[in-house]
Amino acid sequence: MHISEGVLSIPVLATGAAITAAGTIVGLKKIDSEKLISVALLSSVFFVASLIHIPIGPSSAHLILSGLMGLLLGWAAFPAILTGLLLQAILFQFGGLTVIGVNTAVMALPAVACHYMFRPLLSRPGISMSTGAFFCGAVSIALSTILGALALSFTDESFIGVAKLLIYGHIPIMIIEGFICASAYGFLHKVKPEMLLMTQET
Asked: What's the CATH architecture for 10-198?
């Protein structure tokens, strides 16, 4: 979800920038030579998947794939998403440079949170891998939507109505992302399981 420039207040922009800066630093420290290809690949997929926008007030609905990125990259999702958003802002004027911190934090923070919430469940007996991956994809979008709504609400109370619309508008995206995450994770588990092991956070 891309929040447009000129919408958010300076304190919200500063908070988003600080979170993104911290997350990106941690993420870069966790990227080694083996993970670099995965980060570049998923950043490219994110860049393409989130180009198709459905406007919702000062924001928009689109595929994010943050749940899948969180499962596979952990903290490295921050630099991966930041890179994709930076290219979109420069090449297509999506979002913008002043809000890139908030937009990155809104998408990357839930990705990291879902990594720690759902990644351990996927290896536990009795837990369906596809079910765990589905909820990871869906919950990551739900958390991103809530963070986006909070960013709008903390900027101005008049945005509360738009914030609610943002949440309702992303419910179908949550379901779609859940199925995509489950399908992609299951496919990788069959054809390239070493990629899942390589990206496991310690």
From this structure: Orthogonal Bundle (1.10)
